[in-house]
Amino acid sequence: MRFTSVSTSALSLLSLAVGLSFASTAQAARPPAPDLSNSEFQQCLDRLKNSSKFSGVDSFTFNNYRPSQPDPSVIQSLNYQPEFQKDVWDYLSVLVDKERVEDGIRAKHQWSDTLRQVESRYGVKAAHVLGVWGVESNFGQTLGKKPLFESLATLSCFDRRQSYFQGEFANALKIVQRGDIAPSDMTGSWAGAFGQTQFMPGTFLDLAVDFDGDGRRDLVNSVPDALASTANFLDNRGYRTGEPWGYEVKLPDGFWAASNRRDKKSISHWRNQGLTLANGSPLPYDLNSAGLLLPAGMEGPAFLVGKNFDTFYSYNASENYALAIAHLSDLITREDSSKTDFITAWPTDDPGISRQQAKDIQQALLDAGYDIGGVDGIIGDNTRTAIQQYQTSRGIFPADGRAGQNFYRTIIGDAAPNRSQYGNQYGQSGNSQPLNPEPADRMGQLIQQKNADGSIRLVRIDEGS
Fold first, then answer.
1. What's the CA gap between 28 and 280, in Å, rounded?
2. Which domain holds residue 69?
3. What share of the chain is helix, strand, coil (3-state, %, to 5)?
4. Do 17 and 100 have their domain in common?
5. What is the CATH number of the domain that holds 26?
6. Alpha helices, DSSP H, located in 57-147
7. pLDDT at residue 194, as a whole number
8. Residue 156 lies in a domain
9. Among candidate residues 424, 308, 302, the one with its CA nearest the CA of residue 361
């Protein structure tokens, strides 16, 4: 989600608000939706119509798109305080998986001419723009479905941050009044972010670009407009042309430091401290200065990050989010989806799962009789609750509801005889050949064997066995 001109507290609030984000979710049930008074809502809208914030909105636009009733679910989302924080390896495993990298490589080639023009005009590396696009909306495949006018009007009249959301409600009305976006396309996250790279309405008015020359800044339907607008945003935030975002590094034995990407030092300083690239090569002198980022502490992957990483962070105030953009952009540049983890392993014995693996878990839960809704690859409240119930029923402790590789192996192993309708744990349909995992999976193979009675069973051949 992209927003500007908000306080630090509002920034923290809104960084949680992207309906498309996987940053953090909660195990506990959502609070019930509040009972909002429609008469109070309509009185509030009457006051807003004549307020200074809406002075640039004409009466026809305001009345035409004035919601007839509030949406209690957005207040429910506003007050949904996460209790289950995703570890960085879980976060990245979903946002930067094989499928997303391959989608990014295809987008890179499909939009190569536009990306070259965007890079030439704004000086922002094409792969960095693609990284934002991929993380924000899965390359335009997931835009959000909440009606913006209802969401922003409700947030303008109830609960916290009303002043901020009133401004964004006015901005959203100005967008359709100017003719940039069709009213029917004004949908997005519950907090108001919309379009292929998830701009808030105020950011749209400030930084959206008409790059395809049709006279409209359409970040919903025009890929050129969306890509150029993202580059314009990053450029506006101080992006440095020709610099990388940073790189994974190797820390020397005995080295200790706190994670502080803002404490930037020269590359010579870090060289003198004994840091190298993760593969052991000397640090290149292609960053003006860099800060040390340790997202999982001293035992996990380490990074030196420069100003361009900071511009990713400014898009949505999360270092994990910025690292996802950075890592995805590197893999798209290399056009390599075979290995999506870093050189240094995360300090965990239960790594995260890909979206395909999440879908397999959900299908296995459905097949086991758990009502989780549909299979979408997003581990939300319903799926986590079902995982907890599954763990409890089988005496697995702790029953934490976590969808990691350990649970993945457990449920896929339990469901193996019934997997034919949706494939194996690698998302492949059944066949008579060994099913080879990606190297990063490190979980062995499944092969089919025919029993004496003619039935088929799946047998796991673990690595080293």
1. 44
2. 8-86+94-236
3. 45, 10, 45
4. yes
5. 1.10.8.350
6. 59-64, 72-78, 88-95, 98-110, 112-122, 126-137
7. 97
8. yes
9. 424
Chunked mean pLDDT (size 10), the chain, 465 residues: 45 38 43 90 97 96 97 90 73 94 98 98 98 96 94 97 97 98 96 96 98 97 98 98 98 94 97 97 97 96 98 94 98 94 95 94 95 90 92 92 94 65 33 30 34 41 31
Check whether residue 17 and residue 62 sit in a common domain. yes
pTM of the model: 0.81
CB 185 within 8 A of CB 220: yes
The two structure tokens encoding residue 207: 């930084």
Q: 313 and 438: one domain?
A: no
| Local structure of 54: helix, strand or coil | helix
The structural domain count of the chain equals: 3
| Same domain (yes/no): 255, 201 | no
Cis peptide before 398 (omega within 30 of 0): yes
**Cα distance between residue 170 and residue 198, in whole Å:** 18
Q: Indicate if 204 and 98 belong to the same structural domain.
A: yes
Map 306-353 to HEC letters: CHHHHHHHHHCCCHHHHHHHHHHHHHHHHCCCCCCCCCCCCCCCCCCC
Q: Which two tokens stand for residue 340?
A: 């999506």
